[in-house]
Specification:
This is GIP protein. 34% of the residues lie in helices and 10% in strands. It has 316 residues and is of the alpha+beta class.
């Protein structure tokens, strides 16, 4: 996966912080905070753990003991941890909460620094399971979900964040997997509202899944990974283009806003236009969507494919 997320050029770098690192380590998070405060962050994306949120904790599984029990409520203080949890369960729940808010806080810092430097806001993508209340059709169960948290609702209103809601099954996941992504960008075409079962053949699912596995459920679908990688490369390219524009002088920026009028010798677009000097007709541009015609010449010792000694040319 590290090679999959690699940037396309040597000027940009993708920092992979995954299960190989301890995300709760303060020294690792301090390094990420330094990046967020540096003003060089173009995109922040990831999927905080969902193990303490999974809807499967509310169903009896065909395993010894019936499977893992619920650890959270949907509303109130117990959305962070139910009472009566063991020390091991409590560490899991608190650790997941910390990772969620750490990711959000990184984006907040990067946003503030981008505004201070008058740069574009970094792209933000936070993936998490969709709200079970919207697809389970069971109003009697108090399913936990970060999309029911008032803190997330507050951030959406303050930062103008949007939710991408879709199923990963049509994108190549072995299960349907309703998913929601919190982002400050509009969803790509065709993704919002994409619903359906998995397109993976049943034989392949049985071969690779072999029953329920946490890693299989949590993994991103190949199609979703491709979409996020495209957004990543677009964000990196957008950041570099914006930085180049910011380095231009104000007079040149005004020249671009006026659609390259008047002509400037230090403008590549103007030079590419060539014969944009004095126009011989009285009305330079009488109307939009018209073909402007001008002549050039006399040219000394002119040569053309239609014959020698060409002195004048008609440009349209």
């Amino acid at each position: 996966d590290r090679r999959f997320w690699k940037a396309q050029d040597d000027q940009s770098h993708v920092i992979n912080v995954d299960q190989a690192e301890n995300l709760l380590d303060d020294s690792i998070y301090a390094a990420l905070l330094e990046v967020a405060c540096s003003g060089t962050l173009d995109m922040l994306f990831g999927g905080p753990p969902r193990r303490t949120f999974t809807v499967l904790r509310h169903f009896a599984l065909d395993v010894s003991g019936g499977g893992p029990r619920p650890l959270r409520a949907r509303h109130g203080p117990e959305r962070f941890a139910l009472e009566g949890l063991t020390d091991w369960e409590l560490r899991r729940v608190k650790g997941d909460c910390i990772l969620i808010f750490r990711m959000i806080f990184l984006q907040l810092l990067a946003e503030v620094e981008a505004r201070r430097r008058r740069k574009m806001s970094p792209t933000f993508l936070m993936e998490h399971p969709g709200d079970p209340e919207e697809y389970m059709g069971d109003g009697d169960t108090d399913y936990p979900s970060i999309w029911a948290w008032p803190e997330v609702e507050f951030l959406m209103n303050v930062l103008g964040l949007k939710k991408w809601e879709f199923d990963q099954g049509p994108l190549g996941h072995p299960r349907r997997k309703p998913t929601c992504i919190l982002s400050n960008r509009e969803p790509p075409d065709g993704l919002q509202g994409l619903r359906g079962r998995s397109i993976v053949p049943k034989e392949e699912i049985a071969e690779h899944v072999g029953g329920f596995r946490w890693a299989t459920w949590a993994a991103w679908a190949p199609g979703l990974k491709n979409i996020i990688r495209e957004v990543l490369h677009e964000s990196l390219d957008r950041g570099k283009a914006y930085a180049m524009i910011r380095r231009l002088d104000r007079g040149f920026l005004d020249h671009l806003r006026r659609d390259h009028v008047p002509y400037r010798r230090d403008c590549r677009a103007c030079l590419a236009g060539y014969f944009r000097g004095h126009q011989h007709r009285r009305v330079a541009v009488p109307d939009g969507w018209t073909l402007s015609v001008d002549c050039v010449g006399p040219i000394k010792n002119g040569l053309s494919e239609f014959g020698p000694q060409v002195k004048y040319a008609l440009i349209g």
